[in-house]
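Two proteins follow. First one:
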Amino acid sequence: MGDIRYVCLSDMHFGADNSILTRLNATDGSVDPMHPSDVLIHLANCLRHLINNNSGDRLPTLILNGDILDLAFSTENVAAMAFRHFLELTMPEDPTARLFDPQIVFIPGNHDHHLWETCRERQYADCLSSADWSTPLPRPPHITPMREPDGVPSYFVNAIAHSLPWLADVKIKTVYPNYAITSGDKLIVVSHGHFIEDAYLMVSEFADLLYSKTTPPETMEAWEAQNFAWIDFVWSVLGRSGHIGVDEENVYNTENSPKAIGSLLGSAARNLVLKKGGATGKTLAKGVGEMVGALVTDYFERGQTDTLLSDDGAGVKRFMQVPVQEQIRSEFGETAPSNVALVFGHTHKPFEAIMPLEHFFAPSFAAYNSGGWVVDSPEVKPLIGGAIVLIDDDANLASLRMYNECDDTSDYRVSVQIAETTDDADNPLFSQLSKSIDPQNWPWSDFSKAAAVAVKQHNTRLASFLKNAGDTS
């Protein structure tokens, strides 16, 4: 009991120059895609230590919970090389040294959403050869089942894995946007988390403003079907679009917050209406620009660095109450487990909490956020950090808090965390981890030192960028 069965990582942002898992050149701070970062090397050592402490021989399943490859502020080639380093370190040529089961689960986020679109379209195209063309074809689905999904092979991500000849048997199956893990009366929903924010429901919000009789989407399929093109364009495509992508990243960095994207898009909408709208456009332009900007930026969680969740977690609760609850009921029916947890990332602010929830089939749920591995600000933000969420065979949860940004480098320390009201005695996973992890010794202490150096390096790099931007403005 207590062996690690699932390892959940999110928001690694491989390829992005603000990720501490992407190596930077010491001379000019540019991305060095040919070598792994020091933090990534030490992270792999920590994962190896964890998994070697399992009592059984069964390797845990790796769940890559979104924003693994950064396709907004990187390009496919750079992101692919950075991700390949991760596979080399955790799934080496020696079969006895591999850390994960060859069946890997990938749940795309907003920054790698385009990989889901390529999976979805390929899956539908493959079905056409055996389709009954004498009747109308069904629409291609926008989501996969959460319960025991077959998954969809990701040609791109699997190609990266198979570029390492010894990983020919590795299969990375794509599930989107939710993946269910069950044991007894326990249900864990794993999802990247972008749908907790209004910004990723912009098309639905826009339709509601335009057409007062529009019914808000209530299913997971409808949430994705209405908003997928918007998510794909802004967070998975625009950042790779030549100079437009460079400008988008510069705006993002200059404002130190994702809110800057809302300002950028609001200005674009205003200028478009002003230019193309004739006399009417001159009247509407300002209002349209403000509306678009507000829809995108009102509750950007990554911009709220002084609180773990804005508005008392209203976005997370809405996500659970509406589309997740509908998906659970449609797939589990009356057999839905009553003990529910949500594992998500996206906000880059790791935490563990029991959250009360009204109008839900359970009175509360455990929320585990796996944080992120990027530095968005020239100043230290103590709520920002990275974690590994771990799950055992009995669906017990524990969070291995790898780091939070700190002013004092000596304060970087790995710790084991569980939701506050969880009884430690009832969680053998937590007990096992607490015994096996000594933050003062290798490999944990070495990881902490590397993380402290990397965060400081990125703080300094971004401060230099902002200073240069200010000098030329």
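Second one, unrelated to the first:
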Amino acid sequence: MPKCPASMAGYIAVLTGLGVSLSTAAQVRFGVITLCVAALAILVIKRVRRLAHRRGPACCTG
């Protein structure tokens, strides 16, 4: 992920042939980062739930 909006604008222009403003590129960059963090959080939550389900309830171990 590029660190500056100018790089993001350049990547968008090269890949799509469309020019975008720096503010739009910054918003796209923020959106992509947000989606990546959300996807990672969902995967972590699923993994934790799977591990908790595999162990069973703590009150029934014996």
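SUMMARY FIELD: The chain has two helices and no strands. The chain has a mean pLDDT of 79.
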